[in-house]
Amino acid sequence: MTMTAPVPATPAPAKNAVSAKPGPFTVETVLEVKHYTDRLFSFRLTRPAAFRFRSGEFVMIGLPKEDGKPLLRAYSIASPFWDEALDFYSIKVADGPLTSRLQHIQPGDEVLLGRKPTGTLVLDALKPGKRLYMISTGTGIAPFASLIRDPETYEKFDEVILTHTCRQLDELTYGEELVAATKQDELIGEMAREKLVHFTSVTRDDGPVKGRVTDMIRSGELATRLGVPALDPTVDRVMICGSEGLLKDVKQICLDANFIEGSNAAPADFVIEKAFVSTD
Ligand code: A2P
User: Fold this and answer.
1) Residue 163 C-beta-side C-alpha neighbours within 13 Å
2) Does the first or last residue of the chain, that is N or C, have fewer Cβ atoms within 10 Å of its Cβ?
């Protein structure tokens, strides 16, 4: 008697060269694109049913190059974990390999999405505390757009202070709309209205508050304006997301105040993450 080897199922026809490869990416569809300034835009993608992430994490996003290989950059996920789609907030760089093309995407277009979100800007990397500072510049607000819509943020902290500093006033619009919508949200609105404080400043426009957040922390101006005491590692926790310079400077402020840097493996008092694609 002869045994016949099972015939392998015929693979489904490839959608395109990239999706044909079983790889670390899925091909998602653009649902919405919103342009805020000539330097900033956001976009919304379909979310695979199996895609899970922790608020504050980032994932690889990209487009296929002409040779079919993916061109990818890390992007913080700006939508809450409970949302049915995925939001991202991006800078536009005229000669940036990815964002020069990504800024032109339209609803219906396809974008590559990594399967494995990761990152250190997560609640799990912080020890319990009373007041949570989220300090951001530019597109560094993106991971906090997710974290301020996570009920766990408000379960773990009595007060949540989101600071956002940009060069110009119109660059604050994304955060202002986000916070306003969060406070009206059915699921999270009540907690956000009670605990979330949004502090903004600009550095190159005349605005209601002008100056770098680092200078305002060091001088005590931020604490005075918010009506809170100086940074204290026994009760305060800090998350930082922005440019390399911001990370370095706020990290130093934290270290000077005896805060210890946390990680997924060893939760502590503060965590940092570079705002991605700031130079793409
Ligand atoms: P500034 O205008 O004084 O450079 P960018 O668009 O370059 O990422 O900057 C976003 C915001 O972050 C700007 O308001 C910028 O202020 C501010 N910024 C840049 N570097 C630092 C830093 N090292 N500490 C605090 N704020 C910073």
Assistant:
1) 26
2) N
- pLDDT tens digits for range 99-131: 999 999 999 999 999 999 999 999 999 999 999
Structure confidence at residue 280 (pLDDT)? 67
**What would the pLDDT profile of 86-100 be if each residue is shown by its tens digit?**
999 999 998 999 999
Task: Give me the mean pLDDT over the 162-185 stretch.
Answer: 98
| Tokens 């202002």, residue located | 176
Which one of 135, 165, 254 would you pick to mutate in the ligand 1 pocket, going by the greatest count of ligand atoms within 8 A of its CB?
165
Per-residue model confidence (pLDDT) at position 185: 97
- 243 CA closest ligand 1 atom index: 8
- Residue with CA at minimum distance from ligand 1 atom 3: 203
Ligand 1 pocket residue status of 37, Cβ below 6 Å: no
Query: How buried is residue 107: exposed, middle or buried, by Cβ count under 10 Å (0-12/13-18/19+)?
Result: exposed
Residues 6+ apart with CB under 8 A from 200: 163, 164, 165, 166, 172, 175, 176, 207, 209
Longest dimension (CA), the chain: 88
Q: Which of 251, 252, 209, 257 is nearest to 234 (CA)?
A: 257
* Contact 244 CB / ligand 1 (< 6 Å): no
Residue 11 has pLDDT above 70, yes or no: no
Report phi then psi at 273, rounded to 5.
Answer: -150, 135
Kindly give the number of the ligand 1 atom that is closest to the alpha carbon of 242: 8
Tokens standing for residue 223: 């604490």
Q: Ligand 1 test: best mutation among 137, 222, 276, most atoms within 8 Å of CB?
A: 137
Q: Whose CA is nearest to atom 11 of ligand 1?
A: 166
For 155-166, how does the pLDDT look when each residue is reduced to its tens digit (9 = 90+)? 999 999 999 999
